[in-house]
Structures are given as C-alpha cells and as structure tokens.
Amino acid sequence: MSWVVYPPAGNPVVLRSSGIDVASLFPAHHLVWLQSGTAALAWCLCQHRLRHPEVTQPEVLIPGYGCPDLVAAADYAGYTPRLVDLAESTSEYDAAALLAAVNENTLAILAVNFLGLAANVSAIRALLPEASSIAIIEDNAQWFPEPDRPATTEADYLTFSFGRGKAIGLLGGGLVAARAQPVPMDALASSTDKRWPIKARLYNALLHPALYGLVTRLPGLSLGQTRYHALEALQEMGPQPKRVLAANVECYQQFDTWREACFDEAFTNISAVQVPGLTTQGRHTANRGRLLRYPVLLANREQRDAALASLTQAGLGATAMYRHALPDIAGLEGRFERSLVPNARQFADRLVTLPVHSGITRPVIERIVNTLSRALE
Q1: Whether 107 contacts 76, CB under 8 Å
Q2: Cα(229)–Cα(227) distance, integer angstroms
Q3: Within 13 Å, how many C-alpha atoms sit on residue 361's CB side?
Q4: I need a surface site. Which of 47, 53, 140, 173 has the fewest CB within 10 A?
Q5: Cα–Cα distance list, 318 to 7, 187, 206, 349 (Å)
Q6: pLDDT tens for each residue of 91-144
Q7: What pLDDT, in 10s, does the model give residues 16-32?
Q8: What is the four-CA torsion angle of 324, 143, 17, 10, rounded to 10 degrees?
C-alpha cells in the first residue's frame, strides 16, 4: 500500500469568524443546535412524539442502506425502527415498499440525502394521506444548502451534521431546522472544550496525504469502521465550532465542484460504471446537489472488491462507504430481517465512493480513473 494516502472526505476547518448569517439560510424555520447530527435526528423524533402522545408505540421508517446512527436516533427517541428497501440501483426508497410499510404506528419517515443525492420528499409526501400525522424528517448529514440549491421547505424537519468529514466538518455539532415552533424540551447545556482549537488544527494537519497515510497504519484505530453506537443524551452544540460555523459555510458555498465534473466526463466513457444521480446522457438529475463523495456502482460485489483493492493499494481515497446494508452492520446483527431489503444489500455490495474534497488535484483524479479502468478490464 502507498505511504501517501488521500482521505476519503474532509476539508480543513476554517478557524476564523465571519459575518454570514447562517439563520438566513433557513427562512421560516426554527433552529435548534445540538452536539451531533444523530442528536439532531433524535431531537426531531422526540419532538414529534411529544406532539402525538396518542401513538403509544411509534415507528419510524428508515432506508435499508444508511448510517447506523439513524437507528441510534430512533432507539434514543423510543421509536421502533422499520427498514424499507431502496429502489434498484439508487439511494431512494422503493415507493411500493415504503407505502406498504406505513401503518397506524408510523409517526415519522427519514428522508436521507445520501452524499448530496437528495431524497424526493415531494414523492414521499404524495404517498401519505393529506391529513397524515406522519412527520417527514429530511436528514442532510452529508449535505448543506448551496447558493443555487437552498434548503427545502417540504419536510417537517431538516437536520444537518458538522462532524468530521461532513460537508461542513467542525469535529462535531448538529442543527435542526423545524417548520413548527418547537415544544419545550430539555437538553444538557453545552460545555467548552478548551482543546477544540488544538484538535481542529491537528485534524487539518492530518488531512495531508503523507500524515493521513501514516495514521492509517497505526494499530487499533479502525479508521472508517462502521458500527452501531447508542446515543446517550441530547446536548447543546459547543460554542467553539458554532463560533466558526459561518466562516466554514462561506468557504463551502464558494467551493468549485470541478472535481465532480471531471468524474462525470470520465465515467460517461466507462460503460461498466454506473453513477447514481446521473442520467445515461451524462446530465445531472434534479435531486443531485454538491457531492460529499462521488458514488459509483459496479456490476457486483466481486468486481467492487477488486476495484476497491486496487484503489486502496494506490492510496487514492476510495471507500465502500458503510460496506453493508443496515441488517448486516456490526452491532445491529439480528435486529432486522435481512431478506426484506434485497436492493439495499445489493447497493451496498456494488458501491464505491471516490474523493472530491479540496485535497484532490487533477493528476489524482486521472490516477483514480486510470486505476479503476484497469481494475475493470
């Protein structure tokens, strides 16, 4: 394996303040700041349960492929999570499966923006009765509003994450944008982490491929490992990341997506590669915004694993993302019926993500494309 390893995601944390008014990005919404995106999701679920005490055994519908933190948020809020399969070769719900999963206990549906590929909230809403008490929670942990793609107003709640490697990574923090005035709800007060500036500078340094390559070789770190972790409490977002959020939003909104365009062009010429969110003519689909990582689907798990091995050996920042559908994630074994989400499991088997962060140059993109092409020959 190369000693130089590119991180799969993550832009440097900007350690200055800015005059941008972040609240102006969410007109007609009430903002709640929490310690993580998982906490933000849990807050929304708790909030909606308070509004509907008549539902004594609430359930929340969750896509069969996604971060196990979706389940952790449901567990904390006292919901039973029910997995719904994806439409074939997409990160979107299968409409028929979603409709079949709705019952009298369904109190929320998580509409997940996957890597910048937004869920079709309007289509989900259209499946529900007009007077439904079901909340649609738009999980944007992997995306943030862009100048030409503002936050939507179709969902009841929007959530965002500012953890490591996110669209705006501040090493922690989460945001809820709620359409309705929130019901008063307790959360632990924020605490000041005096070491946060040091952690942020260290994180910025570790984004350098040489240092990141060194860290990936340290034993016991398990970088990129996906497993279930329970959420213990809700806490307000810390003051240090919140203080520099506006400056990081400013950098995010000025970021040029030319890296994505390079991959778009390259993969229109490689028939073995399928790109979710891209039409066969190479044009963006309506649900695609700025990507956190560039997703490609290969023919099957064997082909994906071979391509991923070549890219990893070259240190080119490719990953299999979560690698498994939710029923197969470590810590969730036995909780869900594996056979109910075949498309989600196939999506997990075929997916490779490629880096598009600020540390990726044109020569690196050329190496990624050439390495992937050779692996598919």
Answers
A1: no
A2: 6
A3: 4
A4: 53
A5: 8, 37, 17, 14
A6: 999 999 999 999 999 999 999 999 999 999 999 999 998 888 999 999 999 999
A7: 888 789 999 999 899 99
A8: 40
